[in-house]
Amino acid sequence: MTALARWCLRRRLTVLLLWLAALAGAVSAAALTGSAYSDDYGAAGTESAQAAQRLESAFPDQRGEGATLVWHTDESSVRAAPVEERMSETLRAVADLPGVASVRSPYAPGGESRISEDGHTAYATLTLDAPTDERGEQQAQRVLDTARDAAGDGLQVEAGGPGIALTEAPKAQLAEVIGLAAAAVVLFLAFGSLAATALPLITAVVAVGTAAAGIGLLSQVMTVADFAPMLGMLIGLGVGIDYALFIVTRHRTGLRAGFPVHEAAQRAVTVSGRAVVFAGATVCIALLGMFILRLGFLEGVALAACLTVVLSVAASVTLLPALLGMIGMRALSRRERRRLTEHGPRPEAPTGFAVRWSAFVERRPKLLGALAAVLMAVLALPTLSLHLGTSDQGNDPASSTTRKAYDLLAGSPPGAEGSGGGFGPGTNGPLTLVGEVDGAGDKLAFDHLPEAIRSTPGVAQVSGPDFNGSGDTGVITVVPDSSPQSKATSDLVDRLRDDVLPQAEEGSTLRVLVGGPTAGYDDFADVIVGKLPLFAGVVIALGCFLLLLAFRSIAIPLKAAAMNIAAVAAAFGVVVAVFQWGWGSELLGLGSAGPVEPFLPVIMISVLFGLSMDYQVFLVSRMYEEWRLTGDNRRAVRVGLAETGRVINSAAVIMIAVFGAFVLSGDRLIAMFGIALAAAVALDAFVLRTLLVPALMHLLGGANWWLPGWLDRLLPRISIEPEPAAPGSRAEPAAPGSRAEPAAPGSRAEPAVPGALPTPAVPAPGPPGALPKAGRPRP
Fold first, then answer.
1. More confident residue, 345 or 407
2. Whole-structure pTM value
């Protein structure tokens, strides 16, 4: 790290130009090749996935996704001549639009079932000629505009279905702008210098911009979910600004201690840069744990997020020191530069709230630890009612056309705009039964299947069977009497698979697969839930092993795992309350209450475990260094918390601001990530790392640092921080927020953060992990 920092400082212009060239090259390449993101979140090999594949091969002309045009009138009937004439003309115009393969009108022969019993609502189904990821937004927008032209004079026209979803996608980059603005305010309050404030923002934007273009290129060679770029940007801005914050804080401390600009920057990268690389590595390891699930689109998400983190770390230890060398002493505020000129460098003693809080936790560890544990438990309680499922357009904001079309089909509540009988809630998520037919016996059994299904509890309507040209595949459409997200619909899927269909298949070679939205959601959730314990166990075990190597302690990794699990559980409690219970979701523009996405637990565990490791590393590194110097656990915990509390809290506020801003993205899934990550970081930084962790470490005493001697000899040694300087040399601090042993008289000692405490020389406490011996001198 020292050699790298020295090279970047000497060739700072070259480093800057290389990064700008990388950004420009990646953006240009992505613009030329385009992107191929996928919105297929299914799990290959499940019954619903097999049904979808069979349908696609048997009915290739229906490969494209569907859209639905719904119209409603309160005053007259949709069968009235003026309404029928206007909508028939509109449907002909829609059928002539590019991208529309077919239109099935309720006014055509056999279309009577598309008109509601009360005659106030009707719908037409459209088949588009390509899936969403192969079709531009403009085609869907033309369909929507043409349909809306028919509205007026008491006629309401809305559009829904997967084909229209693109028109509801957020277009403005409001979330990113607000997140950066909030981060800039926090940085300026922390630094008091515009130049120092700009550096973390520039570093993060260059890294995230390069990564975003790289994710687009990655989508050309593997399956990458369509939410991966936004998720990568969310993570990248948060960690990128935070990593740069730690290094800039360390650099500013060196300048105030009297070091020249280049030496201060070199020391900042040597010390804080090591912790940044370690923290970034833990984030990537946690993200790559998603490969255990063997779900193609999640593997693309993992690589996309890892690319963003790797580039953020690289920019922090290369581009950032080059920029620090360029701005010189302007990394300090004018007041700090004037004070340095007038009074010279002098030691800074910890003052303010962080010191008082650290002493308060030391005096009341049992009480404060119990309060923190109760708070986390209360927030985690809603997690017990977690319902995994995929939200649909019924969860869109109430003002969106997709939500209005969904409500019109289902039958809106009385008094709502366009209220009416509709077609029942199951119309928005019909089940598709796909039969593999081989011979006359199978065809006869499949022909009789609708009769058995109509008498099944939970079924509202059955249509079909329909066969393809070769007659080897049949389709039956089943409309449940409950909504797609209802547990009753999931029960119907199980009832069909376990009871009804096996009886129909007896005595034949017929095989019937249950597909459709609800079946797909349930199958995917089952795959995730089944593999979640293995995934979480591997990620937690790898993280604990890294901490074991770094801190030579059994208790530190175990506490870290427990704290990370607590943060994830409490964050999910917040997500359940907002999105599943609907507390404030409509006020935030996030739509109505609905299930939590099945893959959210996987991504949240990966990201949160990695991010919470950052704070664990920065906090415990300082405590570990003090323990090695003094052998006094109480002092180690007190000093570590006092000297790192401010920078950890500043970093947390920045992450919360960036993550929270993504609630304004207009995308329910990204907003779910934003709220979950913001809540987890807030609880992790302000409850766990600054309250529960230090309280537990006070209670455990020297046992915090115990490691069996035989295990200590077996484990390889890695070091997050440089070894403490020997007496008589310049002190080298250990980690962000740390300080080194005092230098010999006449040498220049450098405190690590504003307010580093002078430490008297104390004999070393023995090998890492050894308990304090009786009679050891105390500071």
1. 407
2. 0.77
